[in-house]
Amino acid sequence: MNNQINQELFFNLSYSDLEKTIATWNEPSFRVQQIWQGVYQKFWNEPDQFSSLPKLFREKLFTYFKFSSLSPIKVISSQDKETQKTLFSLEDNYAIEAVLMKYDQRRTLCISTQAGCAMGCVFCATGQMGFKRHLQSGEIIEQVLYYARELAKSEEKVTNIVLMGMGEPFHNYDATLKAIDLLNDQRGFGLGARRFTISTVGLVPMIRKFADEDRQINLAISLHATTNEERSSLIPINKKYSIEQIMEAVRYYVEKTNRRVTFEWALIAGKNDSESTARQLAHLLRGILCHVNVIPLNPTSQSIYQPSSKEQTKLFQQILEQFGIPCTIRIRRGIDIQAGCGQLAVKMTDPSTMI
Question: pTM to 2 decimals?
Answer without folding.
Answer: 0.91
